Amino acid sequence: MNKIKIAVVCKLMPLYRLGVFQKLSSLNEDLEFTFFGDTKNCSGIETIDWSYSNKIDGEGIRWIKTNNYFYKPELLLWQTGIIKNILFSKYKVFIFEGAVSHFPIWLFALLCQIRNKKVLFWTHGFNGSDKGFKKWIRLFFFKHLCNGVLLYGKKNREIMISYGLNPDSLFVIYNSLRTKEQFQIFEKRDQNLIKKEKEHLFKNSKNTTIIFIGRLVAHKGILEIVKVCNNLIKTGLELNCIFIGEGPEKEILFNYIQENELQDNIHFTGSLYNENDIAKYFVMSDLMVSPGNVGLNCIHSLTYGVPVLTHDNFTFQNPEVEAIIDGENGVFYKYNDFENLQLKLENWISTSRNKEVTISKCQEVIKNSYNPVNQANCIVAAVKNIIM
């Protein structure tokens, strides 16, 4: 029996998708996934190394290299080789990133319709804030240029249904990182080594430690993290804080830290991409704080058993926020309310919790939904649905 061939056309080949790409490439059933993408980095996003195109035994990716060109950072202008494969190849299904601002996707999807190829868009979809012309052009895009939409969250699906899109064409696939590798690192953690590392970083290593991972940019609310730490330390609640990442707000943070003499309580790691390096900071932390919004940093944190604090306005959140169960593996504060952020952080820290129970609650949602195996299974189910 000939396998049904599926082309996954990628704007980028981001490293965080390595797990799901490997899983889809290694399927031994009636579907064969091939990835089309460039090897270049864009806007600081770390990409998968081309060497994975040659690996075997479930480690490799079935990958055809393209040349991708951008007219603005991350906004696709053109991608080579795709039209040829739409017109002349045996691929029956094409999966594209579903962003209306990637102009070639309109043409690619239209050609697929003409050639009787099935199309899936992999996207965030709608979050409820869309208005006017932008909303209607996106509705046209999702209604008329594809056979289905792969979504990261249930709320986005509900919003799209309320906008009149067919529920049977909307598939929640969640999101994932390299879960298997991360769990292996977590299981092998050395508590004595962690203790020594923490003693090296902070004057008082026994303090509750919060962590942030991501770009150090203003809309992430990172200055609020330092301010709330300063306020709580002044009240006698001892805190340490770790920042993983780089960005334009770093100098502002440094200045505030110097002015308020917080040098003994706050540590910057810079950008980290090696999972072992990232893991050691998570396993010495008690709570991940992301005042602006969360995305894959939420999944990263929960995987290592660290609960998450973020705001409660889902219109301005990414779909990964659905992984948080308030009071169990995280906590929500009132959107745009700094005093409430401080109160929720103080209450979380002050409440006695069983560490192992908290870790279990954090990792449960990862094991059930937010992992490459489940994500790949959801994508396979969506493909089978539109070709039946």
In short:
With 388 residues, this protein is α/β, with parallel strands linked by helices. The chain contains 14 helices and 15 strands. The radius of gyration is 22 Å and the shape is globular.
Describe the protein's architecture and organization:
- This protein is of the alpha/beta class.
- It has helices at 18-25, 82-88, 103-114, 132-144, 154-162, 179-187, 191-201, 222-234, 250-259, 275-282, 296-303, 338-350, 355-368, 372-387, and strands at 4-9, 31-37, 63-65, 68-72, 75-79, 91-97, 118-123, 148-151, 170-172, 208-213, 239-244, 266-270, 287-289, 308-311, 330-333.
- β13, α11 and β14 (308-311) form a beta-alpha-beta unit.
- The radius of gyration is 22 Å and the shape is globular.
- The mean pLDDT is 95.
In percent terms, what proportion of residues is strand? Answer: 15-25%
Order of helices and strands: EHEEEEHEHEHEHEHHEHEHEHEHEEHHH
N→C terminal distance = 16 Å
Radius of gyration equals 22 Å
Specify the structural class: alpha/beta
Question: The biggest beta sheet, please?
Answer: 7 strands, parallel
Number of strands: 15
In the sheet with the most strands, the strands line up as: 3-2-1-6-7-8-9
Mean pLDDT: 95
SS summary, helix count: 14
DSSP helix fraction? 25-40%
Key descriptive features of the protein:
alpha/beta; 14 helices; seven-stranded parallel sheet; 39% helix; 388 residues; single chain; six-stranded parallel sheet; 15 strands
